[in-house]
Amino acid sequence: MTPAEPIQVTLMVTDALDDLGVCYVIGGSLASAVHGVARATMDADLVADLQMDHVEPLALGLGGGFYADTEMMRDAIRLHASFNLIHLETMFKVDVFAAKPRAFDRAQLARRERHVLDEESDAHAYVVTAEDIVLSKLEWYLKSGCVSDRQWRDVLGVLKVQGDRLDFGYLRHMAASLGVTEVLVRARDEAAGDPPGQAQDM
Predict the structure, then answer these.
(1) With CB atoms 3.0 to 4.6 Å apart as the test, which of 40, 67, 76, 77 could cross-link to 81 if both were Cys?
(2) What span, in angstroms and rounded, lies between the C-alpha atoms of 1 and 22?
């Protein structure tokens, strides 16, 4: 798989969602690369405000180029969980998370930003903000038992590149609701090269 293929496959999915008028936002390492530092292995996560009546049209819109299990899609929407869309030619997997009825998921969708993902074709898609990719990856980092080096490096990359451009008021507020305040403080300290605990007043 060439480095461009994950982006091209993700754009196929976002185009299908756009055609259905489904509000979505791209996360994962693709989003952290937009706001921070790209890494060799890319993954694409989408949060999408999917409803049951979107399932069949989405599967049809993706055509025969994707493996899309409609029953898995319905279960994910019902349970506010995730399902996979697998591009058969490249076997690249896009994880789609049905938006949960919580403040963070709604905020990600409301705050999304449109970015150019493929400069050659000038193709655009909606990507999470720098603040929201930091929060999302910190949440996954905690779920991994704080052992996922990839998630941690992605967070540090965004914090270092974005610096004072980040909205720390929003970060503080949403980190508290997600239970990631402690790791956010630690990540900001490490990104800034400060001794642990110096970002308590961020």
Answers:
(1) 76
(2) 28
Helices (H) and strands (E) in the chain, counts: 9, 7
For residue range 112-127, what is the model confidence (pLDDT) as tens digits? 999 998 777 788 999 9
Who's near 113: CB < 8 A, 6+ residues apart?
126, 127, 128, 129
Q: Where does a domain end: 75, 107, 127?
A: 127
Per the listing, tokens 């949403």 go with 174
- For residues 121 and 144, membership in a common domain is answered with no
Measured CA to CA, the distance from residue 42 to residue 7 in angstroms comes to 9
Supply 188's token pair: 């900001």
Beta-strand relationship, 93-98 and 82-87: antiparallel
pTM of this prediction exceeds 0.85: yes
